[in-house]
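Researcher: I'm preparing a figure for a lab meeting and need a structural model of a single chain. I don't have an experimental structure, so a prediction will have to do for now. The sequence is pasted below. Please return the structure as tokens so I can convert it later.
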Amino acid sequence: MDALLIALLSCLLGEIGGQGQLLLLALAARYDRNAAVIAGLIAATVANAALSATAGALLGPMLSGDARLLFLALALLFLGAGLVWRVKAPDPLDGWPLGAFLTTTLGLFILGFGDGPQFLILGLATRTGEPVLAAVGGVAGIIAASIPVVLLRGRFLALLPVRAIRLVGAVIFLLSGGVTALSALGLF
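Model: Understood. Here is the structure written out token by token.
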């Protein structure tokens, strides 16, 4: 159950103001088809989380307990560092001849590779041995952070103190990642 809650809250916080939200904002404005964009969001998020969780389930048994904990620490540090970086707007995929659903699905799927929340799902699946719960929590967090952007467009990001949320999240993830790394190395 820890994997579910940690993934949900971490992915929710990790997505606020990120490139995924900015791409969704551009696609929602471009297509003005909320249902298709949300369906594409769900498809891409489920596919990325399934890949991350599967990789974590395969990788976990190959690592010792301390190595799995260190892997999770690296995922937390990676997510925290990603929140500190300024986010630049991704390519709005203007030239893609596909419809709203396929453009959203492919765009978010590709953007998700190497993204902090996806790496966190991988780290949680590796550490906890509960890849399904890590994936479900991650999907729920990402979707909860992303659907309001589609429905409210730019008003959602204007309502939130995005920079402050990202900085507080960065501090939380960097500190928890650092403590987890020290614990994995036997220094704490």
